[in-house]
Design a protein that fits this description.
single chain; mainly alpha; 6 helices; elongated
Length: 238
């Protein structure tokens, strides 16, 4: 009697990761990113205070311009400018570390499940600097990495990613409107409205930074669990 051959095991749904992908813990980069996002929030809070002072003093510019009003106006302008510089420095520092973290996350995610990614690895950095596509490519990269990093067999939602990206985009639009309004303002009322718009923009930046921290923490924790578990998808059968 001939013994039947066992049925071949089905190939797993995970594609073999591309060459050059290797697992490393993203924890250290994640912590550094969170700290710097906290710095961004601190500079945005400082900017909100400067915006409020600007709004307050511009209301008095419509009356008699005494020495006290002029001194307050100069003080508000100095704080306004200092806040802008502080925000710029914090943003550049945070962006550099964030991109290092995101690259590590993306490489790990390829090892976990290369089939999840709709874009090449190079877009992890390049997507942020290419006009037009930078409105949705970065969000797609983070969402794909989120899916690949989720626990095996689970269905992951993108609510934190979508909320963060939406606030980030709205904050950019409002910020550019506020900056344009400030540069073209000629009257006290126009200056006050520009400062109000900038206050709203800085508040949106704070909310976006808080959500960015949530995304960084959750994505880092998901990957850390997988890295420490040592469980990887088996390579596809030939």
């Amino acid at each position: 009697m001939t013994t039947p051959m066992p049925a071949p095991m089905p190939a797993p749904p995970h594609a073999v990761p591309p060459g050059g992908a290797w697992l490393r813990s993203p924890a250290a980069l994640g912590r550094a990113t969170v700290v710097l996002l906290g710095l961004v929030i601190a500079t945005d809070l400082f900017a909100c205070y400067a915006d409020w002072l600007e709004m307050d003093v511009t209301g008095d510019l419509r009356g008699t311009l005494g020495t006290d009003v002029l001194d307050r106006a100069h003080h508000a302008d100095r704080l306004y400018g200092a806040a802008g510089i502080a925000q710029g420095v914090a943003l550049v520092a945070t962006a550099a570390v964030y991109l290092c973290w995101l690259w590590r996350i993306r490489v790990n995610a390829e090892v976990f499940d290369a089939s999840r990614h709709r874009m090449k690895r190079g877009w992890t950095i390049g997507a942020w600097f290419c006009p037009v596509v930078n409105l949705w490519f970065p969000r797609r990269i983070v969402a794909d990495s989120w899916d690949a990093s989720a626990p095996w067999g689970s269905r992951s939602g993108h609510t934190p990613v979508n909320a963060w990206w939406t606030l980030w985009l709205v904050g950019i639009v409002v910020g550019r409107f506020a900056d344009t309004s400030n540069r073209h303002a000629e009257t006290a009322d126009e200056l006050k409205e520009a400062a109000r718009a900038m206050l709203f923009s800085d508040a949106l930046d704070i909310a976006a930074a808080v959500l960015a921290i949530v995304v960084v923490l959750q994505l880092t924790r998901m990957q850390e669990r997988k890295v420490l578990s040592g469980e990887l998808p088996a390579p596809a059968l030939g």
